[in-house]
């Protein structure tokens, strides 16, 4: 069975920038919500837990901002620094 996702652009609510210019997407599925930054899935919310893909120290500052914004919008405000 193929999982259907609703894909929307991540818009800044907490971040100071006006837009992420389409470089971050939210993939909302029946069992999980994923964040895609540029061409890479970097975070997932599943079973009420935020899971961030290893490698955050090597990611660009923009990808880190995408992750922080995603986490804050879904109520994981203190989970990402």
Largest sheet, in brief, is: 5 strands, antiparallel
Cα distance spanning the termini:
37 Å
Share in helix: 10-25%
Unreliable segments of 5+ consecutive residues? none
Order of helices and strands: EEEEEH
From the alpha-carbon coordinates, what is the Rg to the nearest angstrom? 12 Å
Taken together, the total number of domains comes to 1
What is the topology, as strand order, of the major beta sheet?
Answer: 1-2-3-4-5
Number of strands: 5
Q: What is the assembly state of the chains in this entry?
A: single chain
Number of helices: 1
Structural class: alpha+beta
Q: Please report which band the strand proportion falls in: under 5%, 5-15%, 15-25%, 25-35%, 35-45% or over 45%.
A: 25-35%
Q: What is the overall shape?
A: globular
- Average pLDDT: 91
Explain the overall architecture.
- This protein has 81 residues and is α+β, with helices and mostly antiparallel strands.
- The chain is 16% helix and 32% strand.
- It has one domain (6-73).
- It is built from 1 helix and 5 strands.
- Strand 3 (32-37) and strand 4 (40-46) form a beta hairpin.
- The termini are far apart.
Topology overview:
Layout: E1 6-9, E2 24-28, E3 32-37, E4 40-46, E5 49-52, H1 61-73
Antiparallel strand pairs: 1-2, 2-3, 3-4, 4-5
Write a short abstract of this structure:
By secondary structure, the chain is of the alpha+beta class.
Keywords:
81 residues; alpha+beta; 5-stranded antiparallel β-sheet; 16% helix
């Amino acid at each position: 069975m193929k999982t259907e996702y609703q894909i929307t652009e991540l818009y800044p609510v907490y971040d100071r920038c006006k837009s992420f210019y389409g470089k971050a997407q939210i993939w909302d599925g029946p069992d999980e919500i994923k964040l895609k930054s540029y061409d890479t899935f970097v975070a997932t919310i599943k079973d009420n837990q935020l899971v961030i893909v290893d490698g955050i120290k090597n990611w660009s500052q923009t990808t880190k901002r995408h992750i922080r914004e995603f986490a804050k919008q879904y109520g994981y405000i203190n989970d990402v620094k």
